[in-house]
Design a protein that fits this description.
This protein has 212 residues and is α+β, with helices and mostly antiparallel strands. It has nine helices and four strands. It has a four-stranded mixed sheet with strand order 2-1-3-4, covered by helices on one side. Helix 4 packs parallel to helix 7. It starts with a strand and ends in an 11-residue tail after the last helix. It binds glutathione (GSH). Glutathione binds next to helix 1, helix 3 and helix 5.
Length: 212
């Protein structure tokens, strides 16, 4: 499979983790988002949204990280990334969406550029924005973990699911942008458990060939 990726991209990180968990080899095509590679006509033809990741599986072109995770899970079911029963699946997807749909979109590069270049926010104001929205997501995940009987080493059950993948991509930028993490002990315990697993650790930004 070919993955269009950028080492710092949290959405690409999610797909790298899932591929590693499934034992699927990939070839990376690197785009330097901060240099604007995503806007090149050649990539725009591949991904009209001009974002990473894009995953190519033979003739199939896949976009949007959560859709890619679910595709991989359906096509390569072992090990499963979703629990078997519908109630737990909905809960796990809900945790994932706090990151993918509600927190992460507010801090992506194009939003950060808009805050600075168009709205003329100072660096301090922009950092406050990022910390606020990442913190809101972390707070929600922590509270949901506290009330969920199935959570422990992982968000749900005894193996990583899409919820854990997305918890990791919630915490990673929170660390980068100096969020206070003490109020989220359950989140951090699960983050540490996940990052001790090679499939997660090898997918982290600093271990990518394009890392700077
Ligand atoms: N919801 C999308 C997010 C895709 C996305 O925004 N990717 C970021 C990197 S994490 C990107 O390509 N940003 C480029 C930009 O903002 O210009 C997904 O989960 O795949």
């Amino acid at each position: 499979m070919e993955l269009y990726t950028y080492y710092r991209s949290q959405a690409s990180f999610r797909v790298r983790i899932a591929l590693n968990l499934k034992g699927i080899a990939r070839e990376d095509s690197f785009l330097h988002l901060e240099k604007g590679d995503q806007f090149a006509a050649e990539y725009r033809a591949i991904n009209p949204q001009m974002v990473v990741p894009t995953l190519i599986d033979g003739e199939v072109k896949l976009f949007q990280s959560l859709a890619i995770l679910e595709y991989l899970d359906e096509k390569y079911p072992q090990p499963p990334l979703l629990p078997a029963d519908p109630e737990a699946r909905a809960w796990v997807r809900g945790i994932a969406l706090i990151n993918v749909a509600d927190s992460h979109p507010l801090i992506v590069l194009r939003v950060r550029h808009y805050l600075t270049d168009v709205l003329k926010l100072s660096d301090e104001q922009r950092l406050a924005w990022i910390q606020h929205w990442l913190g809101a997501g972390l707070q929600a995940i922590e509270a949901l973990l506290a009330e969920h009987p199935g959570s422990g080493r992982f968000c749900h059950g005894d193996r990583p699911t899409v919820a854990d993948i997305c918890l990791v991509t919630q915490v990673t930028p929170a660390k980068t942008f100096d969020c206070v993490l003490d109020p989220y002990p359950r989140v951090m315990r699960i983050y540490d458990t996940c990052m001790a697993i090679p499939a997660f650790a090898d997918a982290q930004p600093s271990r990518q060939l394009d890392a700077e």
